[in-house]
Write a structure and sequence with these properties.
- It catalyses: K(+)(in) + H(+)(out) = K(+)(out) + H(+)(in); Na(+)(in) + H(+)(out) = Na(+)(out) + H(+)(in).
- It is a multi-pass membrane protein.
- InterPro entries: Cation/H_exchanger_CPA1, Cation/H_exchanger_TM, NaH_exchanger.
- This protein has helices at about 10-30, 40-60, 70-90, 95-100, 100-125, 135-145, 150-155, 165-190, 200-235, 240-260, 265-285, 285-315, 320-325, 330-360, 380-390, 395-405, 415-445, 505-520, and strands spanning about 480, 485.
- It is mostly helical and about 550 residues long.
- The protein has a two-stranded antiparallel ribbon.
- A hairpin with a 4-residue loop joins strand 1 (about 480) and strand 2.
- The radius of gyration is 24 Å and the shape is globular.
Length: about 550
Amino acid sequence: MGLGDPPADYGSIAAVGLFVALICVCIVVGHLLEESRWMNESITALIIGLGTGGVILMVSSWKHSRILVFSEDLFFIYLLPPIIFNAGFQVKKKQFFRNFMTITLFGAIGTLISFSVISLGSLGLISRLNIGSLDLGDYLALGAIFSATDSVCTLQVLNQDETPFLYSLVFGEGVVNDATSVVLFNAMQNFDLANFSSVKFLQFIGNFLYLFATSTFLGVAAGLLSAYIIKKLYFGRHSTDREVSIMMLMAYLSYMLAELLDLSGILTVFFCGIVMSHYTWHNVTESSRVTTKHAFATLSFIAETFLFLYVGMDALDMEKWKIVSETYSPMKSIALSATILFLVLVARAAFVFPLSFLANLTKKTEEGKISIKQQVTYMMWVIQVIIWWAGLMRGAVSIALAYNKFTRSGHTQLPSNAIMITSTITVVLFSTMVFGLLTKPLIRLLVPARYLNRESSALSDPPSPKSFLDPPILNGSEVDPEIGVGIRRPTSLRLLLASPTRSVHHYWRKFDNAFMRPMFGGRGFVPFVPGSPTERSVPLLQGNEN
């Protein structure tokens, strides 16, 4: 260490250096396994994290396997925001909003059903295992913890280009589901169960709807504000760095404001990403468009990889496993994990299939149904099974909530709390490894190859964060009345809640073109001034959004 240098915390340096090296290894291994029908980058990172944790465990004489203590603050404040924002920024907006009501139905109502099934099942089954003193609040917390799906892993196992509807529905539901689960968890933490009444229940429902609406509004407002500022001030005249910085910082600011106001930062930053991709992204210079698109994707990728490495290394921490092994028999630990996994399977089925049937009742045409009624149609059954299966994975949100409930600063000495943490880790590892590994093969097994789009996306930079051409996934075609161009549409996937052509989306586009874009910018409405951002000379389909 040279003269004048500050003293270094070599433990922190070693920890950061190790994670950087492991992320590099994950990138190389992920590239080599790119064509694998089984593996994906999240599972690769999880396995490497487990392996590294095992090595550290042996080197430390079986004392510890991690160099960082799992922190829900690290997860919710630093790792989750770039992942969720990039998902909103890159999502195919037309697919997402055409299925928005179904996504909300599955993500909000479905999560409430899952929460109820898991909570009641835990109260009836786990209470019989005699694992310790758990009160009603603990069982309700378990319902919220294991209702949270792993939307991060969904990004890896589903392909947005091959199965755009499945991706938009399962991932969109996952975002709403995670937000709902966190809200339910926090509500259960602060709910006075001793003085429960119907009035308080209605108040809880009202608070939930208020939180959902205000979180969405805050995200939309932050996105519109960034678009308006960049459109009016046009930072690109002097420095493209400033417009890129303002996009990144305002996106993160929206998340932090939501957390400060006790709203859902997940919903806020997700909708902020959608609005920024629709307006703000078109107001910056060409070089900034390329920069932001790849910068957001890179930050998200690094956060995802770090997250799974983090979970894998923490899973082998000996403190909690030692407490559990000294207090409970191995069979009791296995029985608890198996019971939780069984409740997750049942809870997922309890809302996917009934809500699919309920969604059919709101459709006026046969093509807009998810139908269970027509079970003779093979694809109708297959899609519902895939939707059920893809939502079975549990991930870092469940672990973070479990640590929040059953530990203090990542540590616990209570056997009942320790076994809850180890069971949560077991369920997360099993569901991610088994369900995650089998999802891609399951889709290829159940869905005929002719229904999957294998066309490569355009190599040139598109006029929006994703390709402006919505690739066909099934045979069949229809004419989009808004653009007057024949677009191939799914025949048997029309059952997947495709909205009627003249739907809310149609009227929104008219309002957007008449009022929103002239004020906030967007493709085709940014006035030309010397040095202003211009559209590249490629044939665009006016009004055809992702």
